[in-house]
Amino acid sequence: MKISDQISLAAKNLTRRPGRTALTVVGVVVGTCAVIVMISLGVAQSKSQEEMLAQWSDLTQIQVYGGGHKDGKELKLNDEAITAFRTLPHVQTATPYSRAYNLQGYISGGRNDRYQAQIYNLMGAYPDALEPMGFQLTEGQWLTETSSIKSGTIRVLVGEGTGYNFEDTRKSQNSAKRYRYKGMTDANGNELPPFVDVNKDTLTLTLTDGNANGKTKTWKLDVVGTLQEDNSKGWWTQDVFLISISDMKVLMEESSKLTKQKLETQAYDEVNIKVDDVDNVDAVMEALKEMGYENLYSMTQERDQMKQQVLRSQMMLAGLAAVSLLVAALNIANTMTMAIYERTREIGVMKVLGCELANIRTMFLLESGAIGFVGGVIGAVISLLVSFVLNNLTAILSMLGQGGVDIGGMMGGNMYYYGASSEVISIIPPWLLLAALAFATVIGLVSGLAPASRAVKISALAAIRHE
User: Fold this and answer.
1) Dihedral class, residue 33 (left if φ above 0, else alpha if ψ from -120 to 50, else beta)
2) Environment class of residue 421 by beta-carbon count within 10 Å: exposed (0-12), middle (13-18) or buried (19+)?
3) Which secondary-structure segment (H or E) carries 226?
4) What kind and span of H or E run contains 88?
5) Is the dihedral of CA 396, 402, 404, 408 positive or negative?
6) pLDDT class for 456, splitting at 50, 70, 90?
7) 140 has pLDDT over 50
8) How do the domains of the chain map onto residue ranges?
């Protein structure tokens, strides 16, 4: 018997009892739709987490804290170590972010240096690492390794909100007029600019010995560019004074001379490493551990934990939805069993006429597989419709006069993380549709195995005598 004949015969047999066949297909539709929609919620949840983590931090960065130990030898985070980090496979660059917490002094601007900013907003980094690390400029140019600090000038990059660091020293500490912050408005609702325009006004960095009228040393700040604010690289990008690490070391040495307190200039508390791809972060972290550095951190660790949580949630939801497919499988098996019982005489005639047992088995498997396939196709189409409704539920409810509904709350809050949210509740990738369709078809075929085996075991003589 040709395969085309088998398919044609299977199709005719399914239409003999259209009502029963339709009800069996409905069971597969419900199961398939449930599985796709449940997994799509997990896919959307995972995407929402990825977006949230991308806002929090760069997933391709690794932070190395403190020193380490190798073969009983203490390791320091110094320039030599950073050079070694840069030679590791998949590492694009590495740099410390050296903050001026131990320096005593201030940065001043405006007429007669009336406005002052705290010096702890000063930070040092490797100039050649800034662009590879992913920083961007809104204007100006990057820092260079060439220093001009000995001539009394320090080149510096500023943030878009650095001007708001300055306070009016002529106002009291308790006066609201002493400070200005981004978004602050006057009585007429007009936004107030910062006291100091860091790109135009003269800026001076002053180191002190800590005494009110003690020794000081000053440098002019030459603003060469403005960093684009990027919280994923660091909150400090919005209001930093960024200088080269070599200039920072000079300032620390000068501060040591003024205060008579030795500051560590040969080691760093933290080094940031840029990896070429998020998939290579774990390999680089393993290489760092082999070098002896154990205090490592990357947002990929948070990402992996969240992925595990999403996976467990998906497995649980998919398991619950799979119960519907199990019920559908039982319905298919029952339908095929009834079909064999009703067509016993027909099976006997086919055997008497010399039809091969494999052809009889194939015919019934085609019927059960067709039920699974058709149910899978319809279920996939319905799941796409359900996904569309979920993703546009707010707009749909607004059209019906039901605006202001908390969709995240309706979905159990899964789309919300610490204030970050995703408008997409359900995502159905193509692989999910194909996998669900294949699974539904396999369910149909497996459910038809036992009835098909029973059909080929029926005695031809007994089958012909069957009423």
Assistant:
1) alpha
2) middle
3) strand 216-227
4) none
5) negative
6) low
7) yes
8) 3-56+303-465, 61-298
